[in-house]
Specification:
Number of helices: 5
Helix content: over 70%
Largest sheet: none
Structural class: mainly alpha
Bound molecules: hydroxy diiron-OXO moiety
Oligomer: single chain
Order of helices and strands: HHHHH
Length: about 170
């Protein structure tokens, strides 16, 4: 088989992880939408489809390899946030977690000498580097703007910044 038996379940599980990321960002988008933050809403909305694309990339790989996919329940995302600061920090932390998941999968593929999966995962390794750079950049910007989370100029500024990031994609 193209995929080592020990990788089949973990890859299936990552499909659920990517679906979770998509749900999480949709919830964050809705939170921002609800509070009249169009920039933050657009930014997270764009991430919803990106995460779906990550999920589909794994699905396509497994279909091509003829590996069975067992879907699991997608956990409910956190819905209560104190501020946009908490959301951005939450998203950054989440991306760090996903990076760990991808790293674990990649080292397992290497250990089992599953070079097809190892090769497929290189795309995710690069993608996670981009995600980390992106979210860390927003956290840095937030700190630079002196944004504490309260409504005011800094919040409007951050929302506009997120709008620019969303349009640049
Ligand atoms: Fe946000 O990169 Fe997939 O999960």
């Amino acid at each position: 088989p193209m995929i080592h038996a020990d990788l089949v379940q973990p890859l299936s599980h990552q499909i659920t992880n990517e679906a979770y990321a998509s749900q999480l960002y949709l919830q964050m988008c809705l939170w921002a939408e609800d509070r009249g933050m169009p920039g933050a809403s657009a930014f997270f909305r764009a991430h919803v489809s990106e995460e779906m694309a990550h999920r589909d990339r794994l699905v396509d790989y497994m279909i091509e390899a003829g590996a069975p996919i067992k879907l699991q329940a997608v956990p409910a995302p956190e819905a209560e946030y104190d501020s946009l600061v908490a959301i951005v920090k939450g998203a950054y932390e989440h991306e760090q977690k996903v990076t760990q998941q991808i790293d674990d999968l990649t080292s397992l593929a290497l250990e089992r000498r599953d070079f097809n999966t190892f090769n497929m995962l290189q795309w995710f390794v690069a993608e996670q580097r981009e995600e980390i750079v992106l979210f860390r950049g927003i956290v840095d910007y937030m700190n630079l703007a002196g944004f504490t989370g309260a409504p005011g100029d800094a919040l409007v500024n951050l929302d506009r910044y997120l709008q620019q990031l969303a349009s640049a994609k």
